[in-house]
Amino acid sequence: MRFKTPIILFFLSTVTLSAQVLKLDKTDIYKAATIPNELLTKQANAVMREYNETYTYTASDKATSRIRYIVTILKKEGERWAECGVFYNKLRKIAHFSGKLYDSEGKFVKKLKSSDIQDIAIGSDGDFATDHRAKVAEFNFGQFPYTVEFEYETEYNSQLGREVWSPQSSPTLAVENASFEVRAPHTEAVRFKTFNLDKPEPVTLKQTEDGQLYNIYQWSVQNMKAYTPEPYISKSKIDQPTVIVMMEHFKMQGYEGSNASWQELGKFFYQLNQGRDKLPEPFIAQIKDLVKDCPTPLSKVEKLYAYLQKNTRYVSIQLGIGGLQPFPATDVCTKKYGDCKGLTNFMYAMLKELNIPSFYTLVGAGADHLPMQKDLVGDYFNHVFLAVPIEQDTVWLECTSQTNPVGYCGDFTGDREVLLITPEGGKVVRTPAYKEKENGQMRKALLTLDTEGGALAELETQYSALQHDLPGMLASHNNEKDVRDFLYKQLKLSSFEIKNM
User: Fold this and answer.
1) CB 166 within 8 A of CB 259
2) pTM
3) What CA dihedral angle connects 263, 269, 274 and 280, to 10 degrees?
């Protein structure tokens, strides 16, 4: 898995700005009093005054991004926008990072010093080894309203050629003006898809720089109000102004790839995995002996999956080619741990030795991840798992889980498009959706009232499909105190005590 849980920092997209777009002579932009009244709604904790990005693609493994934004913090709840974090690793470096602070009247207060900028390691809750880092800085002013300005530039030396512009990063953020510019050589195919824009087609220009003719694409939005999000709305829907841009050609540490089609993109990931499915000969004999009494391919899959769950554990390792390439199956076999890539590749290697075909599968996992767009080829993925075709069906294996039943996707990987990695390239398929009749919560309750107004309640509940995900996780948790603490927070009762569970 590349990122399993969100990073607890506010990161704006690392794209860029063109100097002519941001009106630097517009000094009133720093004054809180110049915010349009229609943006000062009760939902607004901050107002993005200007947010301008430019992304310049120069070669399949070279690009530059720059971003400059000015945001007015209206109240304490909006202080998250007084912090800026810029992500970097071996494939990208930060060429510039600066910030300034202004008071409510737009008067300059201070700028960031190098000592104000922290350099921290970042990653998800189970990351064991990662080269992901960030430079982070914040202004602690506290005299509301106040305005901050951040500017930074990032240089890429390897990438998959994707940029996402979505200037309203939170429902509590209003946006006064925002713009996005993409620059690419005229010989490079630029593909894009837009959502919820009044003018979805970009303004297009041509410009020559250092003898190279560039195509330029520009989008913009104005006066976006903060809002109260609709409860229970599908997280797979993009409901804010958004532009997704994909470059056709990319290169990562010597591996070349293409977004020309899903098949071509799959070929790139297939080559990353080549030669990494070898297992030690003694272990091959061991797994063949393990399944010798299994009469069907499915029973063999179940046996090996149970072995995987019992004998390995998930540890996130974000090293290598952008966190994309799995460690060899031999390493996982001997060390008994791995990330989603390593564990999935290990399961694939075991099945291969039994002549059971399976497919390494890329997925945008989780409820908040950018959903895959079938009509715009590119890397939407943050996780891998395994697809095993059995007769007329497909068995899905979540190789990072020690509790999932065979074939169960849940709401982490279920009901979405995924990319199977085959020897012929990528193939888009859809994972199972769990319908109303499959999701159940059956509860029996016996309530005994006493004369003092108290009660003793005995509850027994059976959960199935998506309903079982959270209680299933709790049931497998080793620390009973943590489970009790969770239940006390979740149960909406004024006064109660859990006697036993």
Assistant:
1) no
2) 0.84
3) -120
